[in-house]
Write a structure and sequence with these properties.
Layout lengths: L19 H13 L1 E2 L22 E2 L4 E2 L13 H4 L14 H5 L9 E6 L5 E4 H5 L5 E8 L4 E11 H8 L7 E6 L20 E5 H4 L5 E6 L2 E2 L9 E3 L12 E7 L6 H5 L23 E4 L6 E2 L7 H4 L13
Parallel strand pairs: 3-6, 4-13, 7-14
Antiparallel strand pairs: 1-2, 4-5, 6-7, 7-10, 8-9, 8-13, 10-11, 10-12, 14-15
Length: 324
């Protein structure tokens, strides 16, 4: 079990300024003794009725409080904002398209294929894929390359634990992730002029093993809604948002660096590593500052999105100006 030494910069849970919508939702869930962050509850928020069945409802007590390193001005973004302002081109290119166009998407039942250079691969029902691991709540900053940001309480499992369970072979140097392809449910995928499908992303193995990286099944004490990547998405909070692939159906252990979708589509503007770096501007957006959704004034962007202490060693000796 990972035991993390508390840092001076850590903020206690009572010092974080949560939005009332989040507290009210958590109070309601705690009162019922259930949480929809379970993989098996990964259904659209619009579906009021909970999915029923063996092991579907996960007791709140089983969700461990995780990482909360935030600053004094890092108030949690309201749920309605976080679930209505998204980039998820599978449902369209507008910020409100994912929420507007994802109602027909069916996140259950779901399976995840684990393959490539590992000894414990296979195709797993989502509940079986998640079940062996401890669910944790992690409150992370989310920084988009377009220079807007949010603070979101996620629920998920350690990616490192999933990697260990898969028993990678020595030749496996990277993880490659793929998003589901369902053009009948994902209207953006009907166009080949938006992006090549499936959406592909990747992490170097040591990045995947970093304790900050998680596979997300819930947010704000509920299941991840369709527009935010139901039922399973990646969250590596020191990287720009496009690295955090949504609606994952395949995880492959590979030897060569994956050809991630945005780098293939526009190599002049996007790279593989895509670490948040205020010193290196995107050709179209400054990275020195950002607009926190809900705030009027911009704020300075933090190196590695504020997680420099935890991840900077991964890139020692690399030219960060070339790792965009």
């Amino acid at each position: 079990m990972l035991i993390r030494v508390k840092q001076k910069s850590d903020v206690a849970s009572h010092e974080i300024t949560p939005q009332s919508v989040y507290l009210n939702r958590r109070a309601m869930i705690a009162g019922t003794g259930l949480i929809a962050g379970s993989a098996l509850l990964a259904a659209p928020r619009a579906h009021a009725a909970l999915q029923k069945g063996p092991g579907v409802n996960t007791p709140l007590a089983n969700v461990k409080e995780g990482y909360r390193k935030l600053g004094e001005k890092d108030a949690i973004t309201p749920y309605d904002a976080a679930s209505s302002y998204n980039n998820f081109y599978e449902f369209g290119t507008g910020k409100d398209d994912p929420a507007a166009n994802s109602g027909k998407f069916k996140p259950l039942p779901w399976s995840v294929k684990v393959d490539g250079l590992c000894n414990n691969g296979g195709t797993f029902a989502l509940e079986d894929f998640i079940k062996p691991h401890q669910l944790e709540e992690r409150i992370y900053r989310l920084r988009c390359v377009e220079a807007w940001s949010m603070v979101i309480p996620w629920i998920g499992v350690s990616l490192a634990d999933v990697v260990k369970r898969s028993d990678p072979q020595g030749s496996a140097k990277y993880l490659q992730f793929e998003t589901v392809v369902r053009p009948e449910e994902m209207s953006g995928q009907r166009s080949k002029f938006i992006l090549p499908w499936p959406y592909v992303e990747g992490l170097r193995m040591d990045e995947a093993m970093n304790p900050l990286a998680i596979l997300v099944t819930g947010m704000y004490g509920e299941a991840v809604p369709n527009q935010n990547g139901a039922p399973l998405r990646l969250m590596a909070p020191w990287k720009y948002g496009f690295k955090n692939i949504k609606s994952i159906v395949r995880i492959s252990f590979v030897e060569k660096q994956p050809e991630n979708t945005w780098k293939v589509t526009n190599p002049g503007e996007y790279g593989f590593y895509a670490n948040v770096n205020p010193k290196v501007d995107h050709p179209r957006w400054t990275q020195a500052s950002e607009r926190r959704i809900g705030d009027f004034l911009r704020r300075d962007t933090l190196m590695f999105n504020g997680y420099e202490e935890e991840v900077a060693s991964l890139y020692a000796g690399m030219d960060l100006k070339r790792n965009y």
